[in-house]
Amino acid sequence: MLESHVVDLVCSGRHGDPFSVLGPHADESGTHWVRAFLPGAAAVEVLGVKGGRRGKLALRHPDGFFEGKLRNGGTYRLGVTWHDGSSSVLEDPYRFGAVLGEMDVWLLGEGSHLRPFEVLGATPRTFDDVAGTAFAVWAPNAERVSVVGDFNFWDGRRHPMRLRRECGVWELFLPGVGAGARYKFEVLSRSGELLPLKADPYARQSELRPATASVVAHMPLPVAPSALRQHANALDAPLTIYEVHLGSWRRRPEDGNRWLNWDELADTLVPYAQDMGFTHLELLPVSEHPFDGSWGYQPLGMYAPTSRFGDAAGFRRFVERAHEAGVGVLLDWVPAHFPGDAHGLANFDGTHLYEYADPREGFHNDWNSLIYNYGRTEVRNFLVGSALYWLERFGVDGLRVDAVASMLYRDYSRKAGEWIPNVHGGRENLEAISFVKRTNEVIGNERAQAITIAEESTAFPSVSRPTYAGGLGFHFKWNMGWMHDTLQYMARDPVHRRFHHGEMTFGLIYAFHENFILPLSHDEVVHGKGSLLGKMPGDRWQQFANLRAYYGFMWGHPGKKLIFMGCEFAQEREWNHDESLDWHLLGDEHHAGMQRLVRDLNRLYRSSPALFSRDFSGDGFEWICHDDADQSILSFVRHGRDGQMMLVVANFTPVVHHGFRVGVPAAGRWIERLNTDSGYYGGSNAGTPFGAAHSEPHPWQGRAQSISITVPPLATVFFEWTA
Question: Where would one find the signal peptide in this protein (predicted)?
């Protein structure tokens, strides 16, 4: 018979090793005992699996602790009569063996488990022909961890878990608990503090905010890599990205201004992106997050698609529909920080488990959030596993990694004395750098078709170079410098642009140091910055003309392309995450013309190898004239791999130039393929007569051949060479 003080510990929820007490046990004499803690039970007896009574359990504690002998040992069930007179037959969770296999325990402890999501979290499983859910959570410093949910009245005393000390994981199989059940973990710290209930870090589904429980969900099966014609990690392929915040792309005002669900988004967003000619959608974070206003950049569910748009199966269908339409899907992924909400990762087991303990390392001043402890193998494993999970289990084509600069530097946004140097006395976060490299290497090995993109705003070297060559291993890097310089130029009155010509040309000095994406992202249309259209100077016509010219320059410039939703039709007001885009603006010809321009720029870009096949090689670009500051005109040629050539001429003043001579690298006919001043787009319809120019042996700008063209006002024109 069990000692009374041990019984008291179980009943008070203070026993840290429940399997040493509950369930079947044999004493020194070989007698089999069964012990169960069932609050609310009036009587309990042991039943055979195939029927028959095998003994009654005696009440040892009024809170519901029962103990008794088991005749003949073996498997059994519990027949329970409750105080309200009802009865039920239960499987005893404490008669089942370990949830984790020995190899899983080893790999988790080592921090080298490629797919920790397969064994941690909540997974519907069958043990000994009994259906239920296996729960497992990493909390090595806890005194006790319990699974709580609707199935046990959220009572942490009822289902305490077993600790696998080799890896710090608590585990328990709960019979009868299936998909759809809400649950959390109740954690008792070693100091005796009962922590706020914790959501599952590995949850595959969560409740819709403001509710915060995790939801049991089946493990998604692996998805084969998409059969898109050209994968984004082919550096010589076209890549034009439509960045989308799903909660505000479109809403249903007639239905309470609600979000679209995954299937509605598949029916509307996917064909729209396809029609507009974008190769990929990039979704602002869809990982579960508690606060709408974070746009997903303060995530707590690194394995759970947000419940705002439906369940995980719906997200998977969305990706499938995109692939069927020939559109890839990229996700914003946030391993740089996480919010300090009490139900989340912060102080998870009563200690700083996921975050650095010292706030000089572990707290983000800018975002009031916590920084992952990249020095812990289990934390790196958690994050790398998350990256692979989205790629393998939902078939997404790549990840854009947010706030990389904040991970790379220990002094990021900190004053002197507010940060801790690395072991060499430097400012680089060596643990974070190691984590980034490992993430990219794992993705390269396990999902070779996928890409990773760095939002990195500093001059950190070789961000988009392979790790074996000393780089961080990303495929692409956002060109934040190009975005800043060119937007600053475009915001100036044309009369002043001649004095700032270098803002448009400086990017070509370093354009081939990295594999750049040119981003006009959500960050440029929020926080008082206004819309892209609103940044443009001049009257209404000039604002549209400036923006059209800018888009033309961007699509002609070396580098892949990214534009945020609404910018393609010149949204007039600043983006608001709580409201739909202003689609009614398309009833205005200026906005409709802008949308037609972006569609045609994408089509021209994707059909013209000169504009994409040598994006990251200096010999794919040739300046014709970069120093005509007085007229604010730029001209250059893009070269394809097979001799294709595209001449781009951009005029950033509202002056028409007739008979404007441009040197060209080859004799032949130069056909006007796109003119942003076309009346079709809302322009003045100025252009080169007959839409083409034949070269002449008239030396100009260092070339033996030249052409005479009409340069429209505030416009960019593309000319394709034919022999």
Answer: none
